Aldehyde dehydrogenase
Amino acid sequence: MTLSTVDGIGPVTGWSDEILVAGRWRRGGGDLIETRDPATGAVVHAFHGAALEDVEEAVAGGHAAARESGWRDLLPHERARVLYRIGDLIEERADEIARVQTADTGKTLGETRALAASAAGTFRYMAAALETMEESVTPQRGGSLTMTVHEPYGVVAAITPWNSPIASDAQKVAPALAAGNAVVLKPPVWAPLVSLLLGRICEEAGLPPGLLSVLPGSGRIIGNALVAHPGVGKISFTGGTTTGRSIGRVAADKVMPVTLELGGKSPTIVFPDADLDQAVAGVAYGIFSSSGQSCIAGSRVFVHAEVYDEFVRRLVERAESLRVGPGTDPATDIAPMVHHDHRDQVAEMVRQAVEEGAQVLTGARVPEDEVLSEGAYYLPTILGGVRNEDTICREEIFGPVAVVLSFEDESELIAQANDNDFGLACGIWTADYRRAWRIARAVEAGTVWINTYKQFSISTPFSGHKESGLGTEKGRDGIAQYMRQKSLYWDLTGEPIPWGRH
Ligand code: NAD
């Protein structure tokens, strides 16, 4: 039985114990992976992940498939046709994808439906970008016609985190396939199911067998083996900065390109002239949606002293009005965190901050409701009485925890916003467009939202500054990130080259 038979949430029977290795569905040779529904702790599915031998086979199979299927040499619109079909099938099966992902990650169905729609859009956008991608004939500076063309790397390894599986898978797999590569996708052990489903969908859409392998397994073993593998020509990684740094070191030894999309500790800034209703809603959404498990979460909230008391009071009220519950309940705002272990880590970081002097304005505990007692829940939390240099303001928490800080002077604010190792995103709430422009240009961040937050578009490039990343995803140039350039000089004159005169 295949994954497509799944139609509900909770313990699932009948799923096949198979992973996708070089065009074949078969039992993985690695350890048993048990994915759990974080709303209840119940096992959703248990199967064997990939072993090192599976990595060998997937990489060799990727090269063979790229060669034998002619994928790399198909005309762009021919490759695009398959990508459009993948997008359509994702859309057709969006409800199933959403349910699987909610069971695996705990997220609300509203969010997982949006992630499935985003993944479908990504495949379609990359198909369209591929069809319209142009090579350039460069200005001639001699007798040769000069041009530069893009070619695939061969086999790309895509390593993804657990927080938005289908969307982050699509963000890597779509452009890498569009570019003519084979892809080995390594999803995280906490949320691997939707990536396996994507493998089924790609197969059904007519992607030549072997071009996509899906190898769930531990990062330390399977992820590391992929990064170090001599047959892998590029790594596209999304995850934590510590992991990204270690991948970067291995890549440096191989002189291999990497794209790293890493963590964040993003400032979100409220000025007194902001529409406070919008700002309260936007700041709450920016930090508490996805239960804060979002790289771009607006976790450091800077509020101008003039409106600090009123804004914080209203933000606390908003946080306390959010409904905590399972992702399957349409009324839920705050779903469980991905895993009980992760919830406990978040709780421990908050406990330490409080021990070091932070003041709890709301939350900082698990809900008391008996119905929620089995789940990995944590209440939306706001901490005050902190300084920007405190650990809780410097480190990524990856949970529903905001720190609030007051400021008065614009240059002092910019210095504080930038005084952090990360540089992923920033939010600015003000009615003054000149101020918005000044701050947006001065803040060190890859994405800045003005009077909005967490809006995304596949057509707009995404990257992290400083320790939040290296390289860019999305946008029309997204496909070129999975290609290397080759320049051609083509003599048109027939004149003897200098040594030809002897
Ligand atoms: P993680 O770094 O622990 O794991 C990410 C992936 O890397 C997983 O598949 C994991 O198995 C694998 N991995 C772990 N060690 C590895 C190694 N040594 N070699 C190769 N692969 C390895 O991150 P996580 O806990 O899954 O995700 C949360 C992090 O991801 C947060 O820091 C968050 O900010 C970040 N994130 C960033 C973005 C972005 O676009 N910038 C988006 C989503 C999440």
Summary: The chain has two domains: 19-262+468-487, 267-450. Residues 1-13 have pLDDT under 50 and may be disordered.
